[in-house]
Amino acid sequence: MFHNIGILAHVDSGKTTLTEQILYRTGAIRAAGSVDLGTTATDHLSIEKERGISVRTATASTAYRGITFNLIDTPGHVDFAGEVERSLAALDYAILIVSAVEGVRAHTENLLKALDKASLPALVFINKIDRAGCDIAAILKDLSELTSRTPLLLSHTEGEETATPSVSLYQGEDFDQSVTEALCESCEEAEEAFLADSFLSHKRAEDLMKAHISDCSLLPVLCGSAKNAVGVTQLLDFMTDYMPSSKRLATDSLCGVIFKIEHDKTMGKISHVRLFGGKIANRDEVTLLSPQKETAQTESDDNEAVALEAKEDPREKVSQIRKFIGSKYSDAGEVGAGDIAALCGLPSAKSGHFIGSLVQGARFPLATPFLRVQVTPKDPSPDEIPRLAEALMQLSDEEPYINAKWENGQKEIVINTTGRIQVEVIESLLRERYKIAANFSPPTVIYKETPAKAGFAYADYTMPKPCWAVVQFKFEPMPRGYGVSYHGKLPSNQCFYRYQTHIRTSFNQCLEQGLYGWEVTDFKCTLVGGEHHTLHTHPLDFFVCTPMAFMNGLKSLGSTLLEPLLLMRITAPADLYGKLCGEIIRMGGEHENPIMHGTSVTLEAILPAATSMDFPTKLASMSSGKAVLNTSFYGYRECRDGKEHISPRRGVNPLDRSKWILWARGAYQLSQD
Q: Which residue ranges form the domains of the chain, and what is each CATH number?
């Protein structure tokens, strides 16, 4: 039996320390490592050891009381939330760690929302109960307000705020009474017992608790101190007895999800997979499936579109199957249903791909890159730019949010990032793994754009012959957060369906760069006109014509710039309230009414990312380090600063018709100068 467990938390809450203690207590490692000393099994990158934080997801397997625990230790820093997001698909349940002193923080809230969205069972481990300022009651109150699940404390703690507190699980009537009270609002049987001033029988309390944990209506809460190994054995016993196993998500046929990609000098790409059903052995061939893209909106009209051309799913051979504990591995030979392993020899694999068959689950984005950085090699020789581009493409496989972009002939590569620390990690990986020294520009904000008004987009490509393609779209702006939807199906005798497939494929590619060079979003596109010629149309003509129509439409209708916003929650000394309000207004932000508590004030503000990048440093200076700032991505709105923020275009602009046609037909190359 397998338990696939994600260890999640806000940074510095003790995830890696708890992982080490679990591995040590179950005999997987000889001694528990230290984050401070850089000796943990799961933090093996040099930058992880130097900084004392996790920046990559790490897997480790161990066994306890006849159950195999596959632990996934995830990064806690918000810059690496993409690692957590991808790991959720592989889990049977999560352990959410909350510091007993700092309590529920901004990223903890995001994790709770993600767990609810994914309908993933979870338990909370309140860590660091040995520290002064431990407040378990406040954490339980916050949890009850932030999730629809009912928090249920199941630990006795004694000697809190001492070096060696003790923890024991509720037993006997204490357990039965706590479960009855926690379930009385969601379970009729528990309600009847509660109203009768009684409680559920022990067996019934256990069964109902298991069921409500599994259906995500109950959130068990345990306490301890991972650093001092307090409460770790109790946690292991509770997981073994009450948390759901891999059987909950089992399938009859071969099915797995790839949740992590690594690269190895000898074996190439390594794909970490959670298998829901079936079995894979060395030398087996497997089918890789890309998850269907979610559409922005679905509308109940008859204006359907010609489907995109279905590509044949690749079949590739597994060369080796490994089981990892951090950076150390053993050759497993095979992996069966419910287990986690790493597959070597799948060059087409990407994070989020499925193996065998698709299993679609709800996803909740935890990371939104809103910053962009230009990367150039320090070595000016021409060969270094393609080498740097290849390295960044590999790192994009491991962290898709990086999304490295480069057009042959350009001197820099553009990457997306979620923050300064992620840039430092990329720089470190380039230096250590690829022996490349790179320069990184200061981060700039990623804007987006959307059609300014409704109207038509048109282009024809009928010269020089042989060629013939005509495309006409209707663009309609939609509300913020809508995304993009595509509609329209013309009669086949007007435009062959295969050409309409080419139009739709090319349209999706056009979305990457609009009038100002940014991604185009929040609009509805309908193909309303198109034409081919039975003699003169070449199959690639619509790939030439569609981008011209797209850009002509944006030029005639106008393109509205959208700027990213951040939600900031600031807790500071009350006497700084006036200065904080002034700073928020100066940055072009808006704030809610403040909440006063004693000598402190808390207020939430929505701020443009472009004007608030230096605010954390300024806030620390203003408050002499006394203020607490929690930041999360909020969304996009129309840019209000009146400036034209232009991103350099990759490739040739289709608005330059002559040059574009030559470039699209392979008759023109970008200058290397």
A: 2-249 (3.40.50.300), 278-295+303-355 (2.40.30.10), 371-446 (3.30.70.870), 449-557+649-664 (3.30.230.10), 561-638 (3.30.70.240)
